Inverse folding.
């Protein structure tokens, strides 16, 4: 660029053959100033259009330490969904509390996005009235499959 500008200024100072100098100066100005300016303006308009066409976003609320039911209510009021990712057993916390979430609090997501949660659960499996699977299996004359590993460990 500097070289071309130097050549153009040098030729214009000599004063010979004004027409080729004018053509070269116009060409250099067009290629190095006008075309990049037009490209940058088009890029700016494209980015602006893209940002306006994005769906509305919402912040994820903090759910850690809440019960699953409370978190579900909070997420539905925020136009988000809840999804159970995992349950952790034998933690020194009250069962049913949320111990982790993804995406993290404060992140921006689109409306209706499912927020994954991990909750605590006790490892005590009450074979009988509390466990619906055990009740159904007892009605069918079978026993709970969780009892067999316990019996096999004793033998």
């Amino acid at each position: 660029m500097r070289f071309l500008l130097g050549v153009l200024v040098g030729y214009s100072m000599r004063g010979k053959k004004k027409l080729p100098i004018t053509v070269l100066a116009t060409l250099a100005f067009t290629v190095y100033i006008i075309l990049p300016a037009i490209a940058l303006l088009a890029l700016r308009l494209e980015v602006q259009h893209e940002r306006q066409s994005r769906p509305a976003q919402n912040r994820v609320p903090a759910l850690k330490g809440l019960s699953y039911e409370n978190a579900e209510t909070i997420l539905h009021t925020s136009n988000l969904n809840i999804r159970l990712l995992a349950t952790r057993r034998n933690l020194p916390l009250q069962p049913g509390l949320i111990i982790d979430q993804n995406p993290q609090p404060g992140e921006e997501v689109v409306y209706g996005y499912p927020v994954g949660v991990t909750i605590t659960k006790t490892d005590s499996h009450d074979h009988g009235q509390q466990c619906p699977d055990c009740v159904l299996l007892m009605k069918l004359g079978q026993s709970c499959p969780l009892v067999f590993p316990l019996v096999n460990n004793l033998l």
User: Anything to note?
Assistant: Strands lie at 57-59, 81-89, 98-102, 108-110, 114-121. Confidence is low (pLDDT under 50) at residues 147-155. DSSP finds five helices and five strands in the chain.
